[in-house]
Amino acid sequence: MYLCGFPCMVWELHSAHITQLMAMSSPLQNLPTLISARGNGTTTAARPPRGRHGAVQAAASDTSTAVSGGYEEGKLARPKWAGETPLSRTVQALISFRPLYSVLKLVARRVLISTAEKNNIPWKEMTKEVLESEVYGEVDSIQNQSIVYPDYYFKPFHAYDEGNLSWLAAAEAEPAMLSMAKRAVPDASSAYEANQIMRGNWLDAIEQHIMQYSQTSMIHNILDLGCAVGVSTRYLADKFPEAEVTGLDLSPYFLAVAQQKEKTGVPRKFPIRWIHADGENTGLPSKSFDLISIAFVLHECPTTGIVNIVREAFRLLRPGGTLALHDSSMKSKVLQELSPVLFTVFKSTEPFLDEFYLTDMDETLREAGFVNIKTILTDPRHATITATVPL
Ligand SMILES: C[S@@+](CC[C@H](N)C(=O)[O-])C[C@H]1O[C@@H](n2cnc3c(N)ncnc32)[C@H](O)[C@@H]1O
């Protein structure tokens, strides 16, 4: 089952759907009173930063800086529904109640698909196209039979009982991503445009960082750690056509979809290489990349996983290399004001969200050895954190 392919999928739920959810589950009827959070879950107008490099204005230093990138920040350090607040604990207790969790999972999935389709994302068609394709043949050439999965990877996740280890999750990943982008940038005229804006701002933040802090702007080798079905990987390969790009993920199903899609696309000077490995311990040579991107991955990992992945990225980068993390921002005003039902459903599909929100990312990066740590809100819901390996 699939509820939230990416961080914000569940935020596709609209108020009418919330009513539907409530009607179908009696425990949910009491939810708004059980949780005394404020906020209406609506989004404020999104304005992409103007100009290619207009958003980041940080002086070279080894201290951390954060800028809003033109998007609105909330007043809190993190949403009240995340972390170790009484509200967060109440939500956690609610979603641990199995019958309620099962209802949330089923209803929200149905609503998500229909909402995506209303946004002109042909969810069912895209999924069917993958499931009825030759994708199954790709697994043999990709799967690393000796891989040892971290324990957390086997948890039910995004409302799929098998987490990311399933064909359905792999087939639905791209429409899910589009749906998330449209929710993140609601002013965009389509989900495709929203994805362009969201990804464009992330790439601009990376480019700006490289220009500011690396002695050379030449990028020869890029790793997209946690590449899923290759959406972020293709954006990186298009942005840096002279670089050799590697997409790495723990799910052989996701990688099979990525590889098959790439095979049917326009040939590249440097074809993307797909690797089935654990980002915590990739087995790849030290100092072999100039840029590592980790997009929408760390909110799916427990704190130990986050720390290990950041350390591994430090090991894999060359001196002067750049790390870019792209994920939900706890400073986002939209996320801080999410309605009670929405954040409850959201948390029910993201088992490590509290750990992610409680991890001090700047400190984690500093402890791993990174300098020039910059955070910028690159759309109303997500931040891009960039950092450098010292020369
Ligand atoms: C939301 S998807 C990433 C989406 C993709 N980066 C993009 O921006 O389009 C998160 C991915 O992280 C992967 N992942 C989680 N933990 C991992 C780990 N320890 N090593 C490698 N990949 C991991 C999951 O398998 C999943 O495909």
From TrEMBL:
Residues of the region (Disordered) are: 39-59
Task: Pinpoint the Methyltransferase domain residues.
Answer: 222-321
Please give the superkingdom of this protein's source: Eukaryota
What CDD domains would the database entry show? AdoMet_MTases
Query: What InterPro entries does this protein's entry cite?
Result: Methyltransf_25 (IPR041698), Methyltransf_Superfamily (IPR050508), SAM-dependent_MTases_sf (IPR029063)
An example molecular function term from Gene Ontology annotations: methyltransferase activity
Q: What is this protein called?
A: Methyltransferase domain-containing protein
Q: Which organism is it from?
A: Clitoria ternatea (Butterfly pea)
